[in-house]
Specification:
By secondary structure, the protein is an alpha/beta fold. It is built from five helices and six strands; from the N terminus they run ββααβαβαββα. Strands 1-4-3-2-5-6 form a six-stranded mixed β-sheet. Strand 5 and strand 6 form a beta hairpin. The longest helix is centred in the last third of the chain and has 13 residues. The protein is globular.
Length: about 140
């Protein structure tokens, strides 16, 4: 894993300097944070998979792509990217640093109670795994 393993522990706050999309409402939702960058080939390759998860679970999940690049770089990329989920930038990399991310792409899934339930590569976050997290979150409401 290209980050500190904080599964089962409280997630750090989601720190976004600027949203490039509408700021999502996270209340009562499972949060998927995709740490990524415009220059990262594997990050770009995972966009269709992440779009699919965001669409499939849109009622229960908010997906946020979080880059530590500057606003202009990410905005230019978004025009041609096909990304269908929320995007924010934080050039200070506050959440990324708090999670201990040392390699991207890296995904973190946080249940509505604020606990990290998954960390790993985007391809490792299957619809089955995310579905189980969503189902467990509904039971704990």
């Amino acid at each position: 894993m290209a980050a500190a393993d904080i599964r089962g522990r409280p997630a750090p706050p989601l720190e976004v300097q600027t949203w490039l999309t509408d700021q999502p409402d996270l209340a009562g939702k499972v949060l998927v944070v995709d740490f990524w960058a415009t220059w990262c080939g594997p990050c770009i390759a995972s966009i269709p998979h992440t779009n699919d998860l965001a669409t499939r679970f849109r009622d229960d999940v908010v997906v946020v792509g979080l880059s530590n690049e500057d606003f202009g770089t990410v905005r230019s990329f978004l025009r041609r990217s096909g990304i269908e989920y929320s995007i924010g930038v934080d050039p200070m990399a506050r959440t990324q640093t708090a999670v201990g991310v040392i390699g991207i792409p890296h995904m973190m899934v946080v249940s509505p109670d604020g606990i990290v339930r998954f960390q790993g590569q985007p391809s490792d976050l299957t619809a089955e795994i995310l579905g189980r997290i969503v189902k467990a979150s509904r039971r704990s409401d």
